[in-house]
Amino acid sequence: MNQKISAIRDRLGKELCILAHHYQADEVVRHADILGDSLELARHIDGLEARHIVFCGVHFMAETAAILARPEQKVHIPDPGASCVMAEMVPALLAEEVLARLNRDGARIIPLTYVNSSAAVKAVCGNHGGSVCTSANAPTMLRWALAQGDGVLFLPDANLGRNTARILGLSESEIERLDIRGQGRFVPAADPTRKLYLWPGLCAVHAKFNAGQVTAIRASEPHALIFVHPECDPEVVSMADGAGSTTFLIKAVAEAKSGSTVYVGTEWSLVNRLAARHPDKTIRPLRRALCSNMAKVNETNLARMLQELDTALPVRVEEHIARPARIALERMLTACS
Ligand code: 13P
Ligand code: SF4
């Protein structure tokens, strides 16, 4: 498998670039030219010269790359069925309807979507003065969005929204978690005392971590460090020693003293890799939580994808969606440059 991939890489040279997210398995990561978190990977697209960009991650990441790539570049994903459960919790039409309901009495609520969302949801944000954030820049982007209007509709991750609001010092009375069951029927018009409306989405992987696990570790191993991703429940985040993007977690583990025990509350493939990379420390998952969609990409379908590069259908986003989605993404890249 390895040899097939190497042969294609040798043949294509700079015509090919393989990007991989930190949650990819080692068998994929070892072939990556660029490894990063969602923000870093999105930032790299602009400078890429390669004609073929192969994105090892979930579909919204490849879609984001396709939106930011030049027209002559082709973006491929080894398994197009690698979706993100959270991204699927926000249908674009419903987001548009909920936004219209919030704004119906003349308020200006700005939509801000986590990058873990479809291109169509990013397009809704682009069309209504909003933008995109990642877990690495959520505080900067929420501050930016709050300054643009009367309040913010944050989609789709309610945990990231609330954790970020706490960093910015918003009070609980300024935050409302929307109840959007019933096709948005129950969403009220914007209330001037509220600053932030949270879409009730979550990550099924990070939802596996809870305060009871943290309490048990604190009781049995009082010197252990605990770092978590901000998609975790706010109670878990408030009890941890630090929270941040996958890149933050990698740095936090690297900076922990030799001999220390560190628990990491994020996807298993990354925690596993960190444990192997730091044999002088004890690195443990808060709980073993694998993203089954990230795991759909493997060395076998990567090799197959590379063999079929010239005939495979690339990831495509129709221009009427790509244009406003690009505007939303570029607002983020500019605000965080
Ligand atoms: P990062 O923003 O850290 O890349 O995380 C992306 C993600 O999907 C986390 O579940
Ligand atoms: Fe989506 Fe969660 Fe998997 Fe990240 S870990 S890709 S948010 S399902």
UniProtKB/TrEMBL annotation:
One of the GO BP terms on file: 'de novo' NAD+ biosynthetic process from L-aspartate
Pfam family of the protein (one): NadA
Domain of life: Bacteria
Organism lineage: Bacteria, Pseudomonadati, Thermodesulfobacteriota, Desulfovibrionia, Desulfovibrionales
Name listed for the protein in its UniProt record: Quinolinate synthase
GO molecular function: 4 iron, 4 sulfur cluster binding; metal ion binding; quinolinate synthetase A activity
Cofactors demanded by this protein: [4Fe-4S] cluster
Primary enzyme class: transferase
Metabolic or biological pathway: Cofactor biosynthesis; NAD(+) biosynthesis; quinolinate from iminoaspartate: step 1/1
Cross-referenced PANTHER family: QUINOLINATE SYNTHASE, CHLOROPLASTIC, QUINOLINATE SYNTHETASE A
